[in-house]
Amino acid sequence: MSKNIKWSIIIAIALIFIITGSVAAYYSGGSKDLSEKGTTPKNTTNGGSAAQGTTDVKTDDKSQVVVPIKDPVKVRALYLTGWTVGIDSKLQHYVELAKTTEINSYVVDIKDDDGLVGYQSDIPAVVANKAYEKKYNVDKVIKAFHDNGIHVVGRIVCFKDPVLSSKRPDLAIKNVNGGVWRDKKGMSWLDPYNQENWTYLTDIAKEAVKKGFDEIQFDYVRFANDGDKKAMKFNDNGVPKYEDIANFLAYARKELPGVTISADIFGIVCESPADTEGIGQYLEYVGKNIDYISPMAYPSHYAVGQIVNKVTFVKPDLDPYGVVYNTLLKAKERISKVPDYTAKIRPYLQDFTASWLGKGYYQSYGDEQVKEQIKAVTDAGYDQWILWDANNTYSESALAK
């Protein structure tokens, strides 16, 4: 064999080893471009996970599209209005609060009980009915929170909607005596039986998810609870109110695949059998198609002498720990008996003073009362909660660092 042929063979073998080694290094993580493309490092702010980030990805083999997998978040949140997050100084304050306390999430209004979406919407029905107001820059707010690993829950008030129900009376609850039914404050409501309203609400939710909200929370997911309820007229086709509300949530689940969905319910629903309040909230049904239910376990909202979990509360507002603890225990016991109940419990807690109850029946709520309620949640076996104050003036010193 000639020397030239020998050297050609040696060079060829060497090239094979070099190429093989390079490929092996590439697939073993030697290439940063491959290993980091389309991912975001895990954010451990507040011991939680990045709202936008991902520590794992799954790939569709057909399209090679990388789909982020969001880590579960144990929500410890405050409710914020659109007006609040629309002020730069307040937005930054709440970003800093999440950096320095146990808060890792915020509930932000998408559509409040004024019937208005809080930012510019492109949904035709919202635009046509002038049903939005620029309270805040949604893109700016979500980016500020996500950049700091904060989970953003979008609150959509459902059937208490004085805007659409006024401009589209065909979608409103009717009065048996003719015209549109109104509550004690003269406000009209959307008819929960009318499925055009379901579409309207889920369209708003879909747009919000596209804008980056991590979760959709439905509030006022019920029928009106004051005024002359006997004067309400519905085309219900014999469907009970509680089935209708459950059907709406099942519809939302279908329309929002993969989206975390929660719903707010009255705290007393955890105690009352069936749909005692006649508003369509029946504990054993309302959580069968969604991810979370949030009982509004505000002590101030229970009647004087109310019995909860066989405990009598003469003045409920004066015993925040007892009311919250027994509400959650009763709820846990009831839903444990329901097959295929999907919703977990994440209560709303009171951080406001209910002076309207009258002297001797209320107390000023502050750090101590908030801590008692959070302890009640923990003692009842739960680890998520949301504080509510309509004015967004929270007892921040009560929050663990």
Description of the structure:
- The chain has 401 residues and is an alpha/beta fold.
- It has two domains: 3-32; 70-398, TIM Barrel (Alpha-Beta Barrel), CATH 3.20.20.80.
- It has helices at residues 3-30, 32-36, 82-85, 88-100, 124-128, 138-146, 164-167, 195-211, 241-255, 283-286, 320-335, 367-379, and strands at residues 57-59, 66-68, 76-80, 105-111, 151-157, 174-175, 215-219, 232-233, 260-266, 292-296, 306-308, 311-313, 344-345, 348-350, 385-388.
- Helix 11 runs parallel beside helix 12 (367-379).
How many independent structural domains? 2
Oligomeric state of this protein = single chain
Q: Provide the low-confidence segments as ranges.
A: 1-69
Rg to the nearest angstrom? 26 Å
Average pLDDT works out at: 86
The CATH topology of the largest domain is given as TIM Barrel
CATH architecture of the largest domain: Alpha-Beta Barrel
Structural class: alpha/beta
Strands side by side in the biggest sheet: 13-10-9-7-5-4-3-15-14
Count every helix, treating DSSP H or I runs of 4 or more residues as helices.
Answer: 12
**Distance separating the two termini:** 79 Å
Largest sheet: 9 strands, parallel
Strand residue content:
15-25%
Gross morphology is globular
What string gives the helices and strands in order?
HHEEEHHEHHEHEHEEHEHEEEHEEHE
Classify the helix fraction into a percent range.
25-40%
In the CATH hierarchy, what is the class of the largest domain? Alpha Beta
Strands, total number: 15
| Superfamily (CATH H level) name of the largest domain | Glycosidases
